[in-house]
Design goal:
The structure is a homotetramer of 352-residue chains. By secondary structure, chain A is an alpha/beta fold. Chain A is 33% helix and 24% strand. In chain A, strands 4-3-2-1-5-6-8-7 form an 8-stranded parallel sheet, sandwiched between helices. Chain A starts with a strand and ends in an 8-residue tail after the last helix. Chains A and B meet through β9, β10, β11, β12 and β15 of A and β9, β10, β11, β12 and β15 of B.
Chain lengths: 352, 352, 352, 352
C-alpha cells in the first residue's frame, strides 16, 4: 500500500503532536515539519537526534524568513525549504500561528496540495469545517479542511454521540476553560476567574458543524493548565426525554470518550493528566475526552453532564480523520475513524 | 424604639461580618460576640481596642472550654461567659463551625432564646430554612431559622427575582466555585479543577426554598479565592419564553443584584473584589451579587446568565432579614429587606 | 497651622492609596486627584459621592486627552484640569503610569511645583532617590524626589534597621514576588514560577540608597497576589557577627515592621492580608511589612530572615515622609517618620 | 553478566519512576512492584497490559492487607505476595508512604535482603544517608541506605560539584517549593505563599551528607506543581572567593546538571517541564536539575545561583547509584554514577 505523504507546518504545541500522530499512522508517512526559528521544541527534537514518535525521523524544513545560520549554530540539521516540503507531500497539516495558515494556503494552492488547518484560522480558509465523527463525509475529497478547536472537538464528540443515539435539538454549555498550557508563559491568570461575552464561539461553532442543534453557552477562564471542563445541558428532539441510562450507554460505546468516575479517583482535570502520564503516554497526552459518570443528571426531560478536554492533544485524532477524508483513504466515518483509532491505540481500554 | 439585642456565636470569617452587619443596623444592638480561642480575628479586634464597625464596641464572651488565661496573656478583655451573652440577647446568630450550632441550640432552647444558624448546620437544626427574598414570611416569629449557604443565597436572589417577574419552572446550574477564602490555609487546590458528584447541594437546597422549581446542577472547584461564579439556565413556567430583556429588567430592579458588564471593566470575580476594595468597603466586602449583563443569552425559550457570589459577605443581608422576620420587626418581605438594605447601604448605587 | 496642599496624579492602585494617605495626615490637605478616564476606581469614588478616606471629599481633575463627555455621561463631577490642580497645590504625588511622570514633570517645573514620583519612573526624573528611614535628610527641601519601589521600600526598612543597630556590609536577597495585585487581569502567571536575570533591580536600588552596602539578589515571580516574600542574608560590617537576638530586637523596635510568628497563625503572605482585613483596615491594606520571628536564623556570622511586603500600600508611609522632607515640615528622620506614623496609626500595636 | 534483581515497594509517584529506572538499567532486572490497592497508577499499568518502561513487564505483588478480590474484579493480574517478591530479589527499593518503610524493613531484615529507602523515612531506618555524587563510597556494601529527599538530592548535586571544584564552607538557601505534584489533590495551596520554620530540613540534611559545610535556609511553599526552585548562596573555604566563571564551569561539566538560560526560553520551572515533554521523555520527566546561567551572580566573595528541581524524578538516578553501591556493582562514585547515567541517557545533551 502506498503511504499518504504528510507535512506539518508549525512545530509548536499542536504541530509536535500532529507530527507524532502522523508518525503513528501505518498508512501515512511524515515527510517533515516546517518552522521559522530554533524554538525549544526544535532544540528538544535536536537533542533526540531528530527522532520523534514511533522511532520516526522528523526532517526539518525552514519557512520563509527563517535564519538558517541560527539553526547551523545549534547544529540543527535542515532538510530544505518550506516549498521543498510542500512539493514532497500529498497533504499539509497547518498548525502555524493563527492567521499564518491563510498565507500558507496561497502556497498550497499554487503547488496544488491539499491542507488541513487548525482551529485558530478563520473558517473562510477552508471549504469544509470538519469533525471526524460529526461530518466525515463532508470532508471526502475536499481540498481544504479546517478542524474545530480543542473545546469544540471534544464537545461535539459527546453531543454527536448523544444525537445519533437519541436525538438532540438544543445544548447550553458552560466552559470552564484552562487558561494556558503547561509551560506557556504568554498567557496567564492569577487567582481570578475571567468571563467572556456570551455566547461562546464554541457554541456557535457547534451549530456550524451540527446545524440542526441550537447551541449557546458561557465561557469562564480559570487559572489552571490541565484540561478544560465543559458542562453540557442537552435537550432531546421534539422535547423527548433523554435518560441518564441512554446518555451513559452512548458515551461508554464511544471509542474517543473515556467514562470515568470520582470514586475511581478521577477528581478533576488534573487526575486525567496524571493518569495519562501514569499510562506512559508520550508527553503525558491523552486523545480521549473524559466524561464523569457521576456528573450525569437529569434536568426534567434534559440531560446534564460534564466532560474534560485535554486541550493539547484532543484534536489530533480528528485531524488524522481529516487526512483520511481529504485523501479518500476510507470512504466513511466508521472506517475512517476506526483506522485512526487503531493506529493511535484509542479505545483499547474499552475492552476492560 | 427599643433595639433588638443580638449576640454572635463564633467570630470567624462569617461571624466577624455578622457582627459588623448587626452593628450597622440602627434598630439592633450588638451585645457581644463569643468564641473559644484568641484567634487572629480576635487579636485583630484587640489591636483595634475592641472597636468594630460603625464605632461599636464588641464585647467578647468565652464559650465552654475556652482558656481565659490565654486571653489574659494577650491582654484581651473578656466580658463574660457564653451563657452570660445568651442571657442578655433577644436572638443569637450562630456562626460556630459546622455541627457546633446544633449543640449550642440546646443552650438557646434552655434559655428561651431564638437563633439564626448559618448554612453549615444541618437543616434539621431549624424550623425554617430561610431566604430574605424568597420566603421572608415563613420566618415570621419563628424560633430557629437556618440561612442558605453563600452560593444558594446568591443564586436564589437571581432565580427568585426572575420567578416573581416571569415565572420559573426549572433551573440547571454550573457552579464554578472558589475553593478557599483569602488567607484560608486549611483548604487549597493547586493547578486543578475538582468536580463534585452531581447534583450539587445548592440545587437541592434551592428546591427546598422554592419547591415549585425543579433544579439540578454540577459543581466544579477552582483554585481561586475571590467569589464563586454560577451559570444558570432557567426555563419559564409552562414552557413560556423568557426574553433577555425581561431577565435584565428584573435583575436591574433588584437592590441586592449589581448588574455589571465586561466592557466597564468587570472581567471576572477578581474585578468585583477589587471594586469593593476601591469602594473603601470594610474588609473589601460586597453585599450584592454581581450579574454580567453580557452573559445573558437566550437558549430557545430558556434564559442563561452568569452571577458572581462574594462568598464571605453575601449571606449577611439575608441574615439581618432573618432577625427581622424572627423578631417580627417588619411584617413582610418588602419592608424587612428594605430596612436591612437601608442600614447596610445596599442598592444606593442603583440610582445612578 | 497651615496645611500643606497636596495633589495626586493618577488614581490607580497606588494613587488611590496615596490620596487616602494624604487625607489622613492632619497637617496636609488633599486638593484633588487627576486622571484620564472614568476607570472603575473613579466609578467607585463616584458611587461613594466622591468621599474618600477620613470623610474627605476627593475632587477630580482631568489630565490632557481626557474626554469629559465620558465623565458627564456617568454623572462624575469634574473640578477642573490637571493644570488647575497643579496650580492649587504645594506638591504633587505622581503615580501616573511609568514614563508619564517624566512628562508630567515638565508641567510641574513650568508651574514651579515640587513632586514626588513613584518607583515606576526612571531615577533621572528626580534629584533624590528617597526612603523615609534610610535617607530622609537627603530629601530635605528637594524639589523632585523618587520613591523606592514596593519591594525595595520594605527591604530597606529591615536592612536599614539592622544597619543602624549593628552595621551591615552586604546583603543577598531572594525575592519571591507576587505577580499581580488582586483584580489585576493585565498580569498573570498560571502554575509557573518565573525567574528574572540576576541581579534583581531591588538589590541594585538598595545600593543606590545605601551605598555602603553591597547587595545582590535573585527574583522569582510566583502566581499569587497577596504580598511579596523576601529572604535576606545580611553580613555584618568587617565580618562582625550579627546574632539572632540583635536582629530580632531591632526589628521589634521598628514602627513599620510587624514581627509575627507562624505559631500565632501567620502562615504566609495571605495570613497578613487576611489580618489586615480583620483589622477593618481600609481596602484591607497594611502599611507595615511583616517579619517572621521564626524565620530568623544565623548562618555563620551572617543573619538570615524573611519579610513580607504588602505591595499595594507599603510605599504610602514613605511617600508621606517624602512630602515632609521636601516641604521641610519636619527637620529630620525621627520627627518626619513619627509624624507620618502618628497620622496613619502605624506602630500603635507595638504597645501590646 | 548476572543482572541484579530489584523489587519496588509502593507504586506511587516515586515508585512508578523507580520501576522505570530499574527497567532501563541494562545490568538490573525488575522482578516486580508491590502495592496495597488497585490505585489509578496500577489501573494505568493494567491498561498497558502490565508493560512499563523499555518494554519490560511489571509483575504486581500484594502487600499484607491488600484485598485481592478488588484486583480480580478489575482484571489485574497478581504475581504473588510481598514476601514472594522480597524472596526473589537481591535488593528492595522502598517507596512506601512515610513510616511504612520502617515496618517493611523488619521483613527485609528477616529475609536477609538489602534495601534503599526514600526521603520520607526517618534517617534511623538506614545505615547510610546516601547521595550518589556526594558519598557513593559510604554506600559500598551497605545493607540499608536512605536517599536524600528531592530538594536535597538536587541541591547537593550543585553544592558537591562546587565543593569538589573550588571548596565550599557555608551555604544559605531559599527553597521556593512547589506544593504538590500534578494531579495531587491531597495537598494544595490557593493564592498563598506559606513559610516554614527555619532552618529548613534540607539545609540540615545537607550537613549530614556534607558535614564540612555549614548550611541553613528558609523554605516557602508556592502554589505550583512543576518543580522547586532553590537559590543558593555559597561561600568558599577559608573565605576564598568563588567566581562566576568557576561556578559555571563546574556546573556545565556535571552530567546531572542542565545549564539553561532565560534567553533560550527557559523562563522558569514550567519551561523545564514543557521541555521534558517536548523531549518525549516518559511521563514528561527529567532527571537533571536545571541551573540558570543568568542567575549566577557574585556577592562579595560568595556565589549565588538558582536551580530547578524536578521533584518527581530527580531522585531516580541517585537511587540507581544506591543500588550500585549497596550491591558493589561499581567500586566508586565515578564508575557508579557513569553506569547509571549511561543507562538513563543522562548527560548525552552535554555533547552539543
Amino acid at each position: 500500500m502506498k503511504k499518504i505523504k504528510v507535512g506539518v507546518a508549525g512545530y509548536g504545541t499542536i504541530g509536535q503532536r500532529l507530527a507524532d500522530g502522523v508518525a503513528m499512522q501505518g498508512d501515512m508517512e511524515l515527510v517533515g515539519v516546517a518552522d521559522l526559528a530554533p524554538t525549544l521544541a526544535i532544540q528538544a527534537l535536536r537533542e533526540r537526534d531528530m527522532i520523534g514518535a514511533n522511532g520516526v525521523k522528523y526532517d526539518l524544513y525552514l519557512v520563509e524568513g527563517a535564519d538558517k545560520a541560527q539553526f547551523d549554530q545549534l547544529d540543527i540539521p535542515v532538510a530544505g525549504s518550506f516549498e521543498d516540503l510542500i512539493g514532497k507531500v500529498d497533504i499539509m497539516l497547518d498548525s502555524a500561528p493563527g492567521g499564518v495558515g491563510a498565507k500558507n494556503k496561497v502556497l498550497y494552492e499554487k503547488m496544488g496540495r491539499k491542507a488541513v488547518f487548525q482551529g485558530g484560522e478563520k473558517n473562510a480558509v477552508a471549504d469544509v469545517f470538519f469533525h471526524g465523527y460529526a461530518n466525515y463525509e463532508k470532508g471526502l475529497g475536499a481540498n481544504y479542511l479546517k478542524l474545530t478547536s480543542c473545546n469544540t472537538t471534544g464537545l461535539i464528540r459527546a453531543v454527536d454521540a448523544l444525537d445519533r443515539a437519541v436525538g438532540v435539538s438544543k445544548v447550553a454549555i458552560t466552559i470552564i476553560r484552562r487558561v494556558a498550557d503547561p509551560g506557556d508563559y504568554h498567557r496567564g491568570l492569577t487567582n481570578a476567574l475571567q468571563i467572556d461575552k456570551a455566547p461562546s464561539h464554541q457554541a456557535v461553532d457547534l451549530m456550524t458543524i451540527m446545524p440542526h442543534v441550537e447551541a449557546t453557552g458561557i465561557l469562564v477562564h480559570t487559572p489552571v493548565t490541565h484540561g478544560h471542563i465543559i458542562t453540557v445541558l442537552a435537550s432531546g428532539r421534539d422535547g423527548k426525554k433523554i435518560t441518564r441510562e441512554q446518555a451513559l450507554a452512548c458515551f461508554e460505546a464511544h471509542p474517543r470518550i473515556r467514562v470515568v468516575s470520582i470514586d475511581e479517583g478521577f477528581k478533576g482535570n488534573a487526575s486525567l493528566f496524571k493518569y495519562a502520564r501514569d499510562l506512559g503516554n508520550r508527553r503525558g497526552d491523552m486523545y480521549e475526552i473524559g466524561l464523569w459518570k457521576d456528573s450525569i443528571v437529569e434536568s426534567g426531560n434534559d440531560i446534564m453532564f460534564a466532560i474534560n478536554i485535554p486541550q493539547e492533544s484532543v484534536t489530533i485524532p480528528e485531524t488524522m480523520d481529516a487526512i483520511r477524508a481529504a485523501m479518500e483513504m476510507q470512504p466513511d466515518r466508521e472506517s475512517g475513524t476506526s483506522a485512526t483509532n487503531g493506529y493511535l491505540g484509542i479505545g483499547k481500554f474499552k475492552k476492560h
